[in-house]
Structures are given as structure tokens and as C-alpha cells.
Design brief:
alpha/beta; 6-stranded antiparallel sheet; 11 strands; metal-binding; FNR_nucleotide-bd; iron-sulfur; Elongation Factor Tu (Ef-tu), domain 3; 5-stranded parallel sheet; 251 residues; Rossmann fold; 2 domains; Ferredoxin reductase
């Protein structure tokens, strides 16, 4: 059977590249942002991810997928990695990497769970835990381009110290409304008891169905399915809901 030709653009995205770690930031006690210089990077859309491959000295190799946190037109690529205590890859990325270390990656990957600057409809972002990462890329892309598209973010975390990008999300940003939810512990004098997201919480941030907003939900599988169901119950058209989920991977 003849093998189908791979287009030049797709071939570039599938090619493994060597990236150099040029900086890193602590986001939470369990999460770190890796700043990478990737020669020949073809560019990406807000919401896409990369495949990252690690190879041991004995030849053993493993790979994981990580969402891109940075806006598309930056000179460097940023990935935010949350440590999984019994994971195989994330503890190394979050704790052991040093500036100058090399990593293999390919991408960008994904074309459905993305935000494009030409979208003029209102946007709702719903994040559970580290599901904030690709949504943060959307927020940064909007800010960087200076567009006026209205954004709302509902961000659910266990405790205040689990919030990634906390300072950035609390900084003034016209057109961006941010709501934090806490499921285990709340800040002092917080008006809401700790609990999972409720229909009331969602109704407070969801755009009216008549506005045909696009809704992006990212987080653990159970969270994503529950949040999507809430939006449907509130009248959001299912075809206006885009989801990205993750589950146990050993990572």
C-alpha cells in the first residue's frame, strides 16, 4: 500500500526538537513553569499542547503531553508542570531540572480546544486545578493582542495556595472577570464555604445562551463532565462547549 505523504507543515509539528531550559518559575508548592528556547519552533495557538520525551542513559524512553502556558507570539515556550507525588515524569520536571538542561518535544498538537483572535463571541473559561494552563494561554493571548473580546474565568482549586498564576490573574485586566472557587480551604473572611462547583456558581458566570458564547472547560475528567453538564442544564448549546480532560497517567 502506498504511504500517504505528510504535508510540510504537519511534518514540522511531528518532528522532535531539542529545547533548552532557559528559566523557571515556581507557581505553587507543587507546580513549576519551565521556560524553553526551542529553535525552529513553528508557532502555536492558545490551547494547544506538546509531547515531551525523556530518555534515560540506559535507553529507556517515556513521553507525556503538557499544555502550553505562553501566548502564541512569544519568543520562548512555557510549560507549567504540576508534580504528581507518585509520578514518573512530573517530579523530575518540577524538581530536578536545571537551567541549560535539554528536553525533547514535538508539536504543537491539537486544533479543537483552541482560541483564535478572530473569535468575537464572549468566552467562558472553566478550570479545575492544573486545567488552568491552556486557559491561561488564551488569557495571555487576548491580553497580548489587545482585543476586546469579553472573557470570564471560573477557577476551582483545593486551597488558595494551589492557585497557579495568582498574581497575574488578580491584576487589573479590562474585559477579564475572574472568579475563584475553593473546595477544601478558603481564604480568611471568604463569603463562600469550601465545596465543589455548584449550579449557582456556574449560573453566576455563564453567559446568556442567546449570546452564543464559546465555553472552554479543562481539568480532571470528572470535573470536566460535571461542569459541562451544568452548562447544558443552564441552556448552553452543547456544540458551544469545548472540553479538554486529563486523568491518571502515572505522570
Amino acid at each position: 500500500m502506498a504511504r500517504a505523504a505528510v504535508s510540510g507543515r504537519l511534518g514540522e509539528r511531528l518532528r522532535w526538537r531539542v529545547a533548552t531550559l532557559v528559566g523557571q518559575r515556581v507557581e505553587t508548592p507543587a507546580a513549576r513553569t519551565l521556560v524553553l528556547d526551542v529553535p525552529g519552533w513553528p508557532g502555536h495557538l492558545a490551547g494547544q499542547h506538546v509531547d515531551l520525551r525523556l530518555t534515560a542513559a540506559d535507553g529507556y524512553s517515556t513521553q507525556r503531553s503538557y499544555s502550553i502556558a505562553s501566548a502564541p507570539d512569544g519568543a520562548l515556550l512555557e510549560l507549567t508542570v504540576q508534580r504528581v507525588s507518585d509520578g514518573e515524569v512530573s517530579p523530575y520536571l518540577a524538581d530536578d531540572l536545571l537551567d541549560g538542561d535539554l528536553l525533547e518535544l514535538r508539536g504543537p498538537v491539537g486544533g479543537w480546544f483552541v482560541w483564535r483572535p478572530e473569535q468575537s463571541e464572549p468566552i467562558l473559561l472553566v478550570a479545575g486545578g492544573s486545567g488552568i494552563v491552556p486557559l491561561m494561554a488564551m488569557i495571555r493571548a487576548r491580553r497580548q493582542l489587545g482585543v476586546t473580546t469579553p472573557f470570564r474565568l471560573l477557577y476551582s482549586v483545593r486551597t488558595p495556595e494551589d492557585r497557579m498564576y495568582a498574581d497575574e490573574l488578580q491584576a487589573p485586566d479590562p474585559g477579564l472577570e475572574v472568579t475563584f472557587l475553593y473546595t477544601r480551604q478558603v481564604p480568611e473572611d471568604w463569603p463562600r464555604f469550601p465545596s465543589r462547583i455548584t449550579e449557582r456558581d456556574m449560573a453566576a458566570v455563564a453567559w446568556p445562551p442567546s449570546m452564543l458564547a464559546t465555553n472552554y472547560i479543562c481539568g480532571p475528567t470528572a470535573f470536566v463532565e460535571y461542569a459541562a453538564d451544568l452548562l447544558v442544564e443552564l441552556g448552553q448549546p452543547p456544540d458551544r462547549i469545548r472540553t479538554e480532560r486529563f486523568g491518571p497517567t502515572g505522570d
